Amino acid sequence: MELVSELGFWQRMAETRGEVVLFFSSAGCHSCRIWRKLLAKLEEQRANLQVWEIDAGVDMGITQEFEVYHLPALFWFRDGQYQRPIQVEARVHALEQWLDAHADLPPEELP
């Protein structure tokens, strides 16, 4: 899992191949700690997946751009294109099923 910032975010995303789960979190968020562990495990299991974490309290510009109102917030990108927000229970198996079920859907517009 890599901590990223809003600086150069869009250029880097455009150049990235494979899947990226963008994870908005905050230091004091208990649910974020649970998701951080789950996402680290998922990243180990899926060779083509990267997890990028954004501290919502530090990088407020991109947090507002994604219209994040609660934490944690997860968004899925594939080959640099925004796919959709991720809304699933906090279990590795459930997240894997969600990603597989949405794999053939076309990209969506950003929030």
From TrEMBL:
A Pfam family hit: Thioredoxin
In terms of superkingdom, the source organism counts as: Bacteria
The record places domain Thioredoxin at 8-100
UniProt name for this protein: Thiol reductase thioredoxin
* UniProt lineage: Bacteria, Pseudomonadati, Pseudomonadota, Acidithiobacillia, Acidithiobacillales
